[in-house]
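TICKET: design request
STATUS: open
ATTACHED STRUCTURE:
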């Protein structure tokens, strides 16, 4: 059968098989796509468009669907969908159109569907370079626990890793040689997505000092020095959060600082230095650029504040 002559709704199951077999997406992601596309199918039915063929889908259809999303309320007593939520439905539809492209089925290009601007800027917390310097100096590096914590802080800012990714690292993954100033490592992060992380010269230096001070045979890269004997010594995310809180207080920094704030700081620093948003998306391991877009809003606000402060003055 010529798939181009098959109505759009009848392609959905094949699309779900495609993202499973060929794209390797998790079952949770597959379920989300199915749920998001169901709304599009409902809209098609309400407008008597169940027989619409892929090549017949046009910009007017997309616009009317977007209006539907903008005015749709899940229940009568709730507000309409937020723009960020609307974007999830649009992202699913773009992926659906991407399936048509992959299967040589004539249809609208996925990039013709643009995403909505968020309702308001998301409040992304991050530390400045000056604040980070204060934080890095907080651990007592004369003891091994302090060396460990300095290395952890350096790695967070150097790599942008999630705390769960950092605690899962093993010693055998790290090969540091004398004089080394470059190191990269392949990891598997959230959603089973593989990416490469890069260590700064400072991170390599402090990690090397910590490993030189180790005299144990534990497998984990970062271990607990105050835990019970005969139990796992691998440092947990909760333990790292607790230690970070201690150093935040010592450094006089915002008490709301968490390991994820250090990840935000990594991304924000790159963006303010002119690194492209899609490169940062790769560094962070985000599947969708939408998740990375929050950092652009942060720097956009910074630019507006600078413009207002310096360019808003008059000579009058």
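STATUS: resolved
RESOLUTION: sequence designed for all positions
ATTACHED SEQUENCE:
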């Amino acid at each position: 059968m010529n798939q181009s002559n098959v109505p759009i709704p009848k392609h959905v199951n094949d699309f779900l098989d495609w993202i499973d077999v060929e794209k390797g997406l998790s079952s949770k992601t597959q379920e989300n796509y199915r749920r998001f596309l169901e709304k599009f199918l409902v809209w098609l039915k309400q407008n008597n468009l169940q027989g619409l063929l892929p090549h017949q889908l046009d910009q007017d259809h997309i616009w009317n669907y977007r209006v539907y999303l903008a005015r749709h309320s899940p229940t009568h007593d709730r507000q309409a969908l937020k723009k960020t939520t609307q974007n999830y439905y649009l992202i699913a539809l773009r992926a659906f159109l991407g399936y048509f492209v992959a299967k040589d089925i004539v249809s609208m290009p996925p990039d013709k569907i643009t995403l909505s601007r968020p309702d308001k800027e998301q409040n992304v917390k991050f530390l400045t370079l000056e604040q980070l310097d204060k934080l890095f100096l907080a651990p007592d590096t004369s003891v091994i626990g302090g060396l460990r914590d300095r290395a952890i802080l350096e790695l967070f800012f150097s790599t942008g890793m999630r705390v769960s990714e950092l605690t899962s690292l093993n010693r055998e993954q790290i090969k540091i040689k004398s004089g080394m100033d470059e190191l990269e490592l392949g990891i598997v992060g959230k959603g089973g997505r593989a990416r490469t992380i890069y260590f700064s010269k400072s991170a390599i230096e402090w990690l090397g000092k910590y490993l030189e001070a180790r005299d144990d045979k534990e497998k984990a890269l970062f271990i607990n020095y105050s835990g019970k004997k005969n139990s796992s010594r691998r440092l947990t995310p909760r333990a790292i959060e607790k230690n970070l809180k201690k150093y935040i207080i010592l450094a006089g920094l915002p008490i709301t600082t968490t390991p994820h704030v250090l990840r935000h700081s990594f991304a924000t620093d790159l963006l303010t230095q002119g690194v492209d948003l899609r490169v940062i998306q790769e560094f962070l391991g985000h599947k969708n650029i939408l998740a990375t877009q929050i950092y652009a809003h942060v720097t956009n606000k910074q630019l507006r504040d600078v413009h207002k402060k310096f360019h808003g003055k008059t000579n009058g």
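CLOSING REMARK: The chain has two domains: 3-112, 129-307. The radius of gyration is 24 Å.
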